[in-house]
Amino acid sequence: MTELDIEKENTAIAKAYRELLRVSYRNLSKDDKKFIRKAFDVALDAHKDQRRKSGEAYIFHPIAVAKIVAQEIGLDATSIAAALLHDVVEDNEDYSLADIERLFGETVARIVDGLTKISSLNKSGDISLQAENFRKMLLTLNDDVRVIIIKIADRLHNMLTMDSMRPDKQVKIASETLYIYAPLAHRIGLYNIKTELEDLGLKYTEPEVYNDILTKMEDSKEEQDAYIEAFSNTIKTALDKEKLNYDIKGRPKSIFSIRRKMLNQGVSFDEVYDKFAIRIIYKSDVENEKFLAWKIYSIVTDHFRPNPTRLRDWISSPKSTGYEALHITVIGPKSRWVEVQIRSERMNEIAEKGYAAHYKYKEGAQQDDNLDIWISRLQDALENPEMNAVDFVEQFKLNLYSKEIFVFTPKGDLKSLPKGATPLDFAFSIHTEVGMKTRGAKVNGKLVPLSHILKSGDRIEILTSETIKPNTNWLEYATTAKARSKIKSLLKAEKKEIAEEGKEILRRKLKQLKITLNERTVNELVNYFKLKTSLDLFYRVGIGKIDNTKLKDYASSRSNALVSYIKNKIVRKSSLPKEEIEKDEITNKYDLLVFGKDEQKLDYKLASCCNPIPGDPVFGFLTINDGLKVHKKNCPNAVSLQSNYAYRIMSAKWIDSSQQEFATQIKLSGIDNMGLVNQITQVISSNMHVNMKSISFESDGGVFTGKINVVVKNSNMLNKLMDNLKKINGIDKVSRV
């Protein structure tokens, strides 16, 4: 570079720095400006020999990120300084984290450390590693939420300046942005940045689609502007009459959201009617905000007919991101649907700046900060280290993007839950202890099953019991990450408890067969019963699935050295090909296929068109000549079968037979005496593996007959229960129906 080029570049850097201070959303004090200047000088020195792929000086990147943080997100001087320094430690050996802490204090050092950790995560195209990295990144929220916010700003600038990168790198970064950063920006309430990230993501992942929609939008811009003006003029007169201070803006929908509408509704660009929204932003003091919003709503609906099903009142019940507004959809000129958003200036700032605007307006007012509530919910989800990373990200993304419903506690407190939540999710959102002891739920005063889908406005009362324990069905009823992770860990704890009992039972039973329970025996038993772990073995013994007969068979096979040798050869996994090992492990986990709501065992054949294996999501199809055939849900023929022969489809799922429960009825008869029913229910409830569904008794002339419906894991448990019932004084006969 010539001296003239260097001088030009230095002038451009100085100009970019001054622009950063000028556009800051916050009012910066003299001390703030000194602090930011110091950070700028350190960043300038650290990056002096670096250039970006495009050839420009690297320092332009941290300045641009700091500008996004200052202007678009509206954070404070500490965050602006951290944004300027975000790559210093990673890219330069002259500056350590200790240097940053000495120069700028503990807070800036903590944020820079968090950003350095995220950048140094293993960058891989492997989705499970991506997911694991994402989980690690979210753990930095523990340190400071500003880490994630600055990381989103960093990603936005990278997306805006990707043109000089290799196409494969562009697609990888854009996909990661759509997969992780856009949902995260949405959840933190940075809607403008979320929209930018989505559009830029589409630009690199589907360039033809992006450019096609962009061109069509530019072509129709004139017509659109004229339409917005016609719409605005109609209501301006009425708003002026009421002496309201307002602005009306027409906002085109993002390219990404138009693309999503085209895909979801199966329509072309021209058939997407609501390609823009009209925003009315009014000036108001906090006391009159709500009143004026509804006044403007009234004026708009006087002129244009509203769609009553499309009213969204986020003023009375703000979203958990803090978003407040009234949204209505009306029929505008030329019979087109138009979305009208009504917001005060304060609400508009919160919609655009999220976190930062909350703090600006929150000073002095003690109210729960939605972002803090969200972070504490996120920590609950992160607490579960056993959750598969990909499942975790998928579950987390559902929670990020899910629409919300607002429900009430019995005392009238408002709670927000994701759409599709059940009473069980509500119980766990109140407290883990409440969730664990949930016996039932009342919605609007009526008893409902735990699988009942809640709606906005429902009032929920949770009924609890000290004796209740979670069961595997609860995982089908719960939808939120917190509820599901807690239920899984509770079920695991219960399994371990039963396994401890099972180990002692196994020790006793093997002693009778003159076999010592040691590591070698346990390994032999695990192989013999085709199980995966010793925990599975002890658990199956504990619930009576592996009984005396099966253990005697094992003992006799063990005594024959040749048989044992051959068996070991057959089941030794090392001699099996990798595919067989994987298939065998899946089969061990899912060894039973059940059909319908009642989970019946039926005869079936596996369809040859998609060859499902245990563990695959499947459904049953009733054929005319071949009986029940099982297909994978993503089978090439699935759509055709489900649309043409829906009445022949049966729901099906693979389950672990050791977790399977069976309903049965016990008949009792005997001499009636005081306290008999109490004794019977005590015997049943003291057996931890039995769940009583219903009980009925009739007494005639001192003799009683009774029926009890119970749910048990297998016949051994049922026999044990019947033996215990026979021991009760006064009972004559106990039989299974």
From TrEMBL:
Annotated protein name in UniProt: MFS transporter
PROSITE patterns: TGS (PS51880)
Cellular compartments per GO CC: plasma membrane
InterPro entries to which the protein is assigned, alphabetical: ACT-like_dom_sf, ACT_dom, Beta-grasp_dom_sf, HD/PDEase_dom, NT_sf, RelA/Spo_fam, RelA/SpoT_AH_RIS, RelA_SpoT
Transmembrane segments: none
TGS domain mapped to chain residues: 403-464
Function: In eubacteria ppGpp (guanosine 3'-diphosphate 5'-diphosphate) is a mediator of the stringent response that coordinates a variety of cellular activities in response to changes in nutritional abundance.
Entries under NCBIfam families matching the protein: spoT_relA
SUPFAM superfamilies for the chain: ACT-like, HD-domain/PDEase-like, Nucleotidyltransferase, TGS-like
Protein family membership: Belongs to the relA/spoT family.
GO biological process: guanosine tetraphosphate metabolic process
